[in-house]
Amino acid sequence: MQENKFTELKREFTPDLNKEVVAFANTDGGKIYIGIGDGGTVYGVPETDAVILACTNHIRNTVRPDVMGFIQCSAVIMDGKSVIEIEVEKGSACPYYIAGKGIRPEGVYIRVGSASIPATESMILKMIRDTDGERYEDIRSLNQNLTFEEAKKFFEDKGVEFGTVQQKTLGLTNRDGLYTNLALLLSDECEHTVKVAVFEGIEKEIFKDRHEFTGSLLKQMADCYAFIDRYNRTQSTFQGLDRIDERDYPVEALREALMNSLVHREYALSGSTLINIFDDRIEFVSIGGLPKGIEYDDIMLGVSMPRNKKLANVFYRLRLIEAYGTGISKIMRSYKGGTDKPFIEVSSNAFKITLPNMKVIAEKVADDYDQYDSVLKLFDCNKQLTRADVEKKLGVSYATAVRILAKLVEQKRIIRIGNTRNTKYIRVE
User: Fold this and answer.
1) pTM score
2) Is the domain covering 360-427 a CATH 1.10.10.10 domain?
């Protein structure tokens, strides 16, 4: 007998038995013989019952997820001597790993030839996807040492239970009791961040302030909103004896735009959620375009297909969102009656919501009327124009170009073609 891809020989029971079990369970199965040396010499095992008990207890206590349903351990006779045969089938919950080392290369093994070797990170991720599916929030977290101090406080403040049963119901743990990526997002160890930058003026040239928010996604949300709110200035006017406070941005629009950027982004992609604050606008940029099957016109009609259904459900349970598909319509309604509207741009890998500063827009809107004819005259020499063309040819800012083009579309003097970065405009004859 010789070692090969499906056979491992051990002269006696040793603690590294779990490594071989993990490797076989992660690959194509195999058999481990205890009582046979590397060269094939049969030495036998005294007290086979005690060794079998030691083997099964060791495997049960040190291999995760539970692999015992895929193992048969028995005593067989070879060359007249008792040998322990451990038959390991390929498991259905790959990757299996050694408890204490985690779902990392040092804890996950595969069988290559006659050796059990550490799996690469890409191999581990493929095993996870093959087992758990492609949806990010359902996949097992590579980090199983998670804490939830901030999440517990948030749930407690909202009067919502956050015990073991609730975590399983919400999808933070899977059928094997392992943490999912949804748990990672809500944990104190969340690896995704939100970066907020404040610029002087209306261009990305001079930084006034910047901050990166880390920790539980719930903490990031609260801290980020508090930071943004500092730049949502209040202007007070009086009508008779009544004081009327008006803010640069509708509070509901800021809240919904922030929620949208956190709940619907693609967390399988690296990179931070970005929020850029200018004098005349705030931009919310989240990673990932629209989910498959959804187009720009659909979201404007209130159609919703959440990319992260379980994360959205957590926000719903915490009364942070009311219902799916209402966020964009709420943002638009909050600007009802205003001279400018929020602007949405979608690319293959990003989604951006731009909220105009209502005070700045109100001050500049009178100047825009002088620009309408200038934009229309550009069509005399150009069949179609982009927003960038208008900026360059008229020497106006991004926000002004967006505002003028949107108004001309509303007046049906020009037509918008497309809803991505390649959006074009043509004049109505």
Assistant:
1) 0.69
2) yes
Q: What's the N-to-C CA distance of the chain in angstroms?
A: 86
Arithmetic mean of pLDDT, 112-126: 93
Q: What are phi and psi of 83, to 5 degrees?
A: -130, 145
pLDDT of residue 207 exceeding 70, the answer is yes
Q: Specify burial of residue 21 (Cβ count, 10 A radius: 0-12, 13-18, 19+).
A: buried
| Fold of the 7-132 domain | 3.30.950
Q: Which amino acid is at 176?
A: D
Which two tokens mark 404? 């003028």
Q: Which two tokens stand for residue 176?
A: 């094997």
Q: Angle of helix 358-378 relative to helix 387-394, nearest 10 degrees?
A: 90
Instruction: Tell me how far apart the alpha carbons of residues 195 and 276 are, in angstroms, rounded to a whole number.
Output: 8
Task: Report the CATH fold assignment for 194-356.
Answer: Heat Shock Protein 90 (3.30.565)
* pLDDT tier for residue 358 given thresholds of 50, 70 and 90: confident
287/264 Cα distance (integer angstroms): 9
Question: Are 54 and 61 spatial neighbours (Cβ–Cβ below 8 Å)?
Answer: no
- Residues 29-54 have pLDDT tens digits of 999 999 999 889 999 999 999 999 99
C-alpha closest to that of 286 among 332, 207, 349, 331: 349
Summarised one tens digit per residue, pLDDT across range 388-418 is: 888 888 888 777 788 788 888 888 889 988 7
Q: Give the residue extent of every domain in the chain.
A: 7-132, 194-356, 360-427
Quote the percentage of the chain above a pLDDT of 70.
Answer: 92
Among residues 228, 210, 227, 260, the alpha carbon closest in space to that of 357 is found at 228
